[in-house]
Amino acid sequence: MVERPADTRPVRLCQASLGALPKGVLRPEYDRAALTPGIVHIGVGNFHRAHQAWYLHRLMQRGAAQDWGIIGAGVRAYDAEMRRKLLAQDCLTTLVELTEGQRRAEVTGAMIDYLPPQEDNGPLIAQLADPAIRIVSLTVTEGGYFVHPVTNGLDTDHPDIRHDATNPDRPRTAFGAIVAGLRRRRDAGVGPLTGLSCDNLIGNGQVLRQAVVGLARLSDPDLADWIDTHCTFPNSMVDCIVPATGPTELELIRSLGIDDAAPVTHESFRQWVIEDAFCAGRPDWDKVGATFTGRVHDYEVMKLRILNAGHQILANVGEILNLGTIAGCMAHPLVSGFFRKVETQEIAPFVRPVPERSVAEYIALIETRFRNPAIIDTTRRVAFDGSSRHVGFVLPSIRDALAAGGSVEGLALVEAFWARMCAGTREDGTPIDPNDPYWDDLVATATQARETPAVWLEQRQYYGDLADFPAFREAFARWLTMIWSNGTTETLKTYLGH
């Protein structure tokens, strides 16, 4: 527990002030000035700092991994603001672990620099070409890999991909920057590096390889072959609930006696499962709790189908009913009952257990984590980018159930709630602000689907051929009609048999 002396001003976080932090705040015990870079991380958001950077920090606390310092990077203009905040505090981050009735603060220091974002990504390309860099890792969200919605290959028609293919020395995307950096490494005889995706995607390493190699092939087939042969792209599964930082979190950190412009709150649970395929070496993350295994797929299916799909089960209903947080959704008996019934009856049958945990035990663990009232994880954050998240997390279970002749009643209801949410208003009449890259199109389709439910499933870029399966199509239409006619509460009661 953090002990802040009474009547004192918060300590502004920076390297020089670490010794003045309140009693009970853990802080780096290693010489940060002696750290040297080994990793470039693209997408320095809250999750990266609470997860991957924390594992590396923990290794450094043991006196290890001193040559694996993280250099942060971004490829969009808005990354400049995060860079400004972090550089002003010497790239230190305060993590606040929240459990019911308890707060635990720790300052981490594994990041040592943050590159300036530029339109041509020049600084990022130069850093990736540095022989000291052996891993480039990414958290760029599920929808950030330019996957074609129908073919699942690289979307070569996307304007940013077309730009990078014709302007390989002035790329817009993270993948274009990686390709350019690898070209310099090859030409200089530096050697390959490992690309490590830390996003919630099935086979995220394979998806990253597809993006990098596929983009390189559009401009330099020989380079594409070199990357494909020499670089490695391990699959991984990452897990930790990390809310967005807003006024509440900023006030919390000040109440603990720390002035941090970019603090991160998180739950106590963390998991990182990684395929051990690193062509240029790696930190010993397994010594601080990560798992290296050849069974990453089983872990990621369990997590994405149960936790991430579970978030979609809750968040869309939560938005419709104006339940502000995931914990608030779990406190609502009908919504939590909906979550449990769908998870246990329609998702769990198609998920394999992992060595440490059965599927039933994992569902119970997720319920406990989601109920944590100390984690203010908003339904809006969780519902963001449903066009990617439903496709990646929910629809695979529907396909498995249909193939096995199982029930899809609950999963059809999940999709009906997404369609209802995308109409853009809650049942109390308040508006739902745009919350998807394709929001305008989704709202237009959801509005038509109120009278003609089949229109929603004809969005083939998301649903593919699922509209052709009568069991799913008819259940979806019935549920969506009921939601609009009788309301969400009565629909949930019907589904639960109340």
Automatic annotation (TrEMBL):
Residues 38-287 form the Mannitol dehydrogenase N-terminal domain. InterPro entries: 6-PGluconate_DH-like_C_sf, 6PGD_dom2, Mannitol_DH, Mannitol_DH/Oxidoreductase, Mannitol_DH_C, Mannitol_DH_N, NAD(P)-bd_dom_sf. Keywords: Oxidoreductase. Residues 296-483 form the Mannitol dehydrogenase C-terminal domain. GO terms for molecular function: oxidoreductase activity, acting on the CH-OH group of donors, NAD or NADP as acceptor. PANTHER family: MANNITOL DEHYDROGENASE 2-RELATED, MANNITOL DEHYDROGENASE DSF1-RELATED. This is Mannitol 2-dehydrogenase.
